[in-house]
Amino acid sequence: MANAEACVRAFLVRTYHETGGKPLHALDHMDDGTPIELTITINPTDGSAHVDFTGTGEEGYHSFNAPQAIARSATLYVLRCLINQEIPLNEGCLRPLDFTIPKGTLLNPSPEAAVCAGNPITSQRVTDVLIKAFEACAASQGDCNVFSLGIDGDFDPDGNAIPDSGFGFGETICGGSGAGPGWNGTSGVHIHMTNTRITDPEMLEKRYPVLLREFSIQEGSGGRGKWNGGNGIRRVYEFGREVRASIVSERRVTRPYGMKGGQPGRSGVNYGV
């Protein structure tokens, strides 16, 4: 942990001098308009930093609220990505940091707040805000696109559940990664906090009453610039029987931001026919 801590402190000192000593700041908005605001103030003397999410909007009556551990984890992830050294991913990376995450906000909600979508979805938006503050690269898809389908199980006359009479399925859907100084983004890839793989079409169709009619790159959907953002994908399901289907998603209103004059990427779209 001491090694990881030393590397983070050295990185923060370099960042301080490269940015002229100014606090790092970024602001983005969830699709419902809730702001996620971040200011990082670095102390060049010891390489410590204050990570301040003051300005982030209030918790809401939805499941996108994210316990503060998610903001901390996203910060750990981004720091590890930005440090170009082989260091372990552990608590030492966070020792130089002091966090302010105001209570009652989207990133530090009350115990009663719903938080189901905070981990897979809001974490992606927090990651984009952190990367924006460091001006490391343009935004990626900012989403996990959590898609699920299933049917309820049946019961026998005595009220006992009938085995294998119902089923459920869920997956996250990939998208484009952001471009950076010297590289194009990657198309159709899981990025940042998704930590999962999309289901193979053959296994999906074998195990569930589903036909995957299309799984393709959505050409031109990534932001254009000197270096182009990665493109998103198009995934079309056809159901062989009546099912319940849902998707939890973001970036359907807001667009993944570009950097240094690059254009934003397209917003995603969910269709049900």
From TrEMBL:
GO MF annotations in UniProt: 5-oxoprolinase (ATP-hydrolyzing) activity
InterPro entries for the chain: Hydantoinase_B, Oxoprolinase-like
Domain (Hydantoinase B/oxoprolinase) ranges: 2-269
Cellular component GO terms, alphabetical: cytosol
Record Pfam families: Hydantoinase_B (PF02538)
Biological process per Gene Ontology, one example term: glutathione metabolic process
Top-level taxon in the UniProt lineage: Eukaryota
Protein name: Hydantoinase B/oxoprolinase
